[in-house]
Amino acid sequence: MKIVFYTGPQCSLCDLADVELAKTSVFSSLTVEKVNIRDSTDLYHYYGARIPVLKREDTNKEIGWPFDSADLEAFLQ
After folding, report:
1. 39-68 tens-digit pLDDT
2. What's the superkingdom here (predicted)?
3. Residue 23 is part of a domain; what is its CATH number?
4. Which of 5, 13, 38, 45 has most Cβ atoms within 10 angstroms of its Cβ?
5. Reading across the β-sheet that carries 53-56, which strands appear in turn?
């Protein structure tokens, strides 16, 4: 499964989200693409106040911070 991880520079919440993602039971089977929202004006305006955000490419569902590993397990099923 491919996950897009919307992040930004020096984002401490993104670091916490990364740790929670690594705790999930399916982490080893995920393809995670980190996208810096500062590289796109559109992404910055859409996600700027919401990062970190994870988006499933297969369903286009998103989960935004705050979340924990239990929330992520449910999101990834």
Report:
1. 999 999 999 999 999 999 999 999 999 999
2. Bacteria
3. 3.40.30.10
4. 5
5. 31-36, 2-7, 53-56, 62-64
Rounded Cα gap, residues 24 and 72, in angstroms: 7
pTM of the model: 0.92
Tokens of 56: 């499933």
Structure tokens at 9: 């520079």
Tally of domains in the chain:
1
Q: Which token pair is 24?
A: 């999930």
Residue 34, domain extent = 2-76
Q: What is the DSSP letter of 38?
A: G
Helices (H) then strands (E): counts for the chain = 3, 4
Q: Dihedrals φ, ψ of 64, to 5°?
A: -115, 160
